[in-house]
Amino acid sequence: MAKQKKQLTKKKIVTAAWKLFYRQGYDDTTVDEIIREAGTSKGTFYHYFDGKDALLSSLSYLFDDKYEELLPQLEPETDSFDKLIYLNQELFGMIETSVSRELLASLYSSQLITRGEKHLLDQNRLYYRLLNEIVSEGQKKGELTSDMSSYEITKLYALCERALLYDWCICNGEYALKAYGARVMPMLLDKIRQKGKSED
Fold first, then answer.
1. Which DSSP category does 193 fall into?
2. Using one digit for the tens of pLDDT, what is the confidence trace for 14-46?
3. What does CATH list as the number for 1-49?
4. Rounded to an integer, what distance in angstroms lies between the CA atom of residue 76 and that of residue 53?
5. Where does residue 101 rank: exposed (0-12), middle (13-18), buried (19+ CB within 10 A)?
6. pTM of whole model > 0.85?
7. How far apart are CA 69 and CA 180, in angstroms?
8. Contacting residues for 122 by C-beta, under 8 A, at least 6 apart
9. Cβ distance 22 to 100 under 8 Å?
10. CATH: 3.30.70.260, 3.10.105.10, 1.10.357.10, 3.30.1300.10. Which one for 55-192?
């Protein structure tokens, strides 16, 4: 119960911070404003984060929250490949409307040079656990190839997603991320479909 309360408090701080970052920019957002938006105290904020900069690497938590929100909407009978594309579309839609490209670029930059924890690659994240579960289920049902392990397919999916996000950032968002992902992700991932499925 206490652990759940801690997770909820941290989630409130992260959600409040990214909402403000998007609305008024990272530089113009203060810790006091984040605390006020989250409805928490300064002591609680600093229990979880050393300062505003520490929140930059918390974007992965925001992504995981989106996946958690989508879990009930995944129908068991839906094809596993379609589930993966659906998750990608929903995530890209969320990023396009609530995460600034500048901060996303900052996150990727920081992950390239950090010597510490690389949150985006943390296999314990809900993101990776859910993807691996969908892939494993798809392989059992014969919807996804068994020529690769579920870990390899999950890694490929994450790699394709990161590649598109990186490209979107360096192109300064000159195209619609969600719409482009809808066209490109199925092409990039077509090889993971069980032979015959792509022609259905």
1. B
2. 889 888 888 888 888 999 999 999 999 999 999
3. 1.10.10.60
4. 40
5. middle
6. no
7. 23
8. 60, 128
9. yes
10. 1.10.357.10
